[in-house]
Amino acid sequence: MASDDGVTAGLSDDELAEMYHLMLVTTLADERSAREAKAGRLQAAFYPVRGMEAVCAAMGAVLDADDKMVSTYRNLGDALAKGATLRSIMAELYGRAPGMSGGKGGPMHLQDQAVGFTATTGIVGQGLPLAVGLAMATQLDGESRAIVTTFGDGATSIGTYHESMNFAALWKLPIVFICQNNQWGEHTAIADYAPDVELAKRAAAYAMPTQRVDGFDPIASTRAIREAVERARAGGGPTFLEFMHYRLTGHTGTADFSYVPKDELAAAMERDPAPNFRRWLAERGIFDDDALTEIERRAQADVDDAFTYAEASPFPDPATIDSDVFADPEFVRSLNHD
């Protein structure tokens, strides 16, 4: 960990325990989902979040139920951070009816309006204009909430990224742009598609506060997100945060990632967020080994429960095939009868 001795970003012991729990659940569920994807038991592709757990835990510690989030398809940790249940997430990945989107959307379409997990987009960069629209609505309605949108480093080269940043800065919208820079745009290293790999520097051109943050450090991440969220809620306008970490697995749960330089991956694995946070908590005497072991036991039990629940849940009723779609039901039925 990179935090100074004694500094916990104002987090209570209960909040630190919950952060460690969320990181563990994300890691364990991520690794098990990848195995299930390789075994062909999921109904949709799975996009791992390994390496991003610290930022997800920080969002969970800072964001309120009233804040809204628009995420990307690499969203397991984002959804948990915003308050979605692991049961509903896994049921969706298995294509089961109790899933977040009724088992019909998969990771590309996770959403839970009850907790402010407003939308997920499967198209790179397309979540930003949705979040900007939510931020404009928040401003017009005079509400005090933050809109958060998460995206990968590759999205910063998409046209809608630049349009969204410009619009948010011009209107001083209450939005936090969270770039989860994992160093890879699918199978392309960032240096091979970006002439300047310091994305916060690029964002600064839009005259908004920007910051590059150690994305392996949950305490530093919490400080940065809290400051940006409080600025947004207070009417101080947008912030761009670039969290530096590394994708610890392939682009998808089944993808080969032998193209990743072995020395880079080994160095990144040395900073694996959950094990390093455990060590940090223990070294500072915040929790003893028994307390940490209990958090780990609870995390494993929660993951086991969610997968058991998902596998045992029913598939969607075929009669609902033409619901939840942007089309006239009669027209859809006519197609099915041809």
Automatic annotation (TrEMBL):
<dbReference type="InterPro" id="IPR001017">
    <property type="entry name" value="DH_E1"/>
</dbReference>
<protein>
    <submittedName>
        <fullName>Thiamine pyrophosphate-dependent dehydrogenase E1 component subunit alpha</fullName>
    </submittedName>
</protein>
<dbReference type="GO" id="GO:0000287">
    <property type="term" value="F:magnesium ion binding"/>
</dbReference>
<keyword id="KW-0614">Plasmid</keyword>
<dbReference type="GO" id="GO:0004739">
    <property type="term" value="F:pyruvate dehydrogenase (acetyl-transferring) activity"/>
</dbReference>
<keyword id="KW-0786">Thiamine pyrophosphate</keyword>
<keyword id="KW-0560">Oxidoreductase</keyword>
<dbReference type="GO" id="GO:0006086">
    <property type="term" value="P:pyruvate decarboxylation to acetyl-CoA"/>
</dbReference>
<feature type="domain" description="Dehydrogenase E1 component">
    <location>
        <begin position="21"/>
        <end position="318"/>
    </location>
</feature>
<dbReference type="InterPro" id="IPR050642">
    <property type="entry name" value="PDH_E1_Alpha_Subunit"/>
</dbReference>
<dbReference type="InterPro" id="IPR029061">
    <property type="entry name" value="THDP-binding"/>
</dbReference>
<dbReference type="Pfam" id="PF00676">
    <property type="entry name" value="E1_dh"/>
</dbReference>
